[in-house]
Fold:
Amino acid sequence: SSGINAEWPLRPGTWRLPLLLSSYHEGYLRDMSCKLQYHPSPSSKLIILMLYLSRPNLFANGPSSSMSNWIASASVSTPAVCDSLIHQLIDNVCSNKANASSGYILLRRLAAYHPPLILRHLELITSAVGSRNDLPKNEFIQGDHGSVFINVIGVLEALKAHLFDHDCVELLRKCLQFVTLHAKAQHRLYSPTVIKLVVVLLSFLENDRNKAMQVLTATYVEKLRKLETKLRDPLLVKLIDCVTHGTTAHTGTFDETQMAPYLSKLSADSPESLTILRDLETGSLKKPWVLKMFLTEICTRMASDVEDVRSLAHKLAIRHVRQTPKDSTIVTSYLEKIFLGGQSELIKTALEEMPEFILLGGNEIPRLMRCAFVAVSDDRSDLLPDLLGVMRTVLKSSDLF
Structure:
């Protein structure tokens, strides 16, 4: 048989793997991996499958389509199937394909829930980022290469401290180079991404200062000082101070004393609710973690009688879930109440804001979708176009693979 089956691991090919992975063959592995993908013999398929499971970074451009097909059909290759799918997501995001934004959401979700799956591919992400920073400025802007860094830094932020147990220096150095080269000229566009990277670097300093200092060299610190004159952000000041003076790198998620008056007014359903939500919208652009403190009140405002209030509350709830995917269950419980409540205006707003949440959510999404179907089927045909919009998002997400 020319297929892959459960007897393969017992065949003689398995003892060849340690020899292939030895340092003696290091220089030949990438070229050999590329050629073996197109070789039809069962032995070649076995070797390439074992290489893919052991060293996915060898496949810098992802597996070939034929290799992806027989990996997916292999009965013993579940890890390889997972690697293949993640490779496609990384390729979609780093090649700026049409579905890059959906791919980013899924990568970030995997980074939050299953960090080892992404950490296994750090070298691949580094390779995919490549030498974009060396492009002429006009070519960099026209090719929208900044979006790749925005997405990559977002994934690194979701990995949190798990990142620092792996070889992340080169990738962080490329991200820092992007920030110092391009963020000053386009600080309005890139400032949220700059702050995300600053938070990652502060955490890196706290976890492993010696390793972090390999990224934060004197040259980059000087460039960060110049960037700080544009951004005027206290976290960036703290990073520079931590590097130059050795102060503590610990960052609190928010100042509770400063936020308490806002929380009090929002909890009391004050007439100022819309103003407070707008302030939160502006402040959370750079520091999305501040929304955690307000999440319950934000979700409560999703059922407000005032359209602007509930619409903005939905957007802030989704922004928080984008930052902390595990909190999708909290938001889902409030959405279910809205669908079961039977108020057409509230259901319509929920459906309008729901498409992105579908991609961000977890195992609770099928239950939420059933609630949405029930709500629309109860003689509310006017809501059908909004429900179809949600369904289109679900169907488009399958195009990622």
